Amino acid sequence: MGKEYAEIDEPIRRFIERQHVFFVSTAPLAGDGMINCSPKGLDGLRVLGPKRLVYADLGGSGIETVAHVKENGRIVIMLCAFEGPPKIFRFYGRGRAVERHEAEFEEYRRLFPGLDRIRNFIVVDVERIRDACGYGVPNYDFKSERDALENWIDAKSEQELHDYRVEKNSKSLDGLPGLDL
Questions:
Q1: What pLDDT score does 116 carry?
Q2: What is the CATH number of domain 4-169?
Q3: How confident is the model at residue 51 (pLDDT cuts 50, 70, 90)?
């Protein structure tokens, strides 16, 4: 049986910091809308406080998370141990996107040195924290981060990256507004 936690304490913070991957899930309000679950890595998650997380969203061909949190705020972040003792944590809350044109963007960017061309941040005000056993999660040995996304971004000029984001990140698959470009 899972346990509920009042806040992100030191043991939970250390668990978060040890994980190499986390998963983000959101959904639109429409009953027939597409639920989204995205894997994230590249040391892109930070604890801001006992009830707040932020992750750096480097980008991609979709914009579902941004569109969904703009529409309704609902979000869950899940981390599971692939090494060491089995454990899963889910952080349920309200998310919001922080885009490049917003004043907070630079504040969050300083938390992620080495990730230079971040598309946006997702800030999560955590409302509920639950763990689970993780007994069914396999053990994996971490080899390394993939550099494909950063290489893809680095190969583009600022204008090319902007044009790509206008084309691919202005609307979600369901037609919801994405990035403010």
A1: 83
A2: 2.30.110.10
A3: very high
Tokens of 39: 């894997």
pTM summary value: 0.95
Residue 171 in contact with residue 178, Cβ under 8 Å?
yes
Q: In the chain, what are the domain boundaries?
A: 4-169
- Reported as a single tens digit per residue, the pLDDT across 164-176 is 999 999 999 999 9
pLDDT of residue 1: 67
Q: What whole-number distance in Å separates Cα of residue 55 and Cα of residue 52?
A: 10
d(CA 156, CA 117) in angstroms, rounded, equals 10
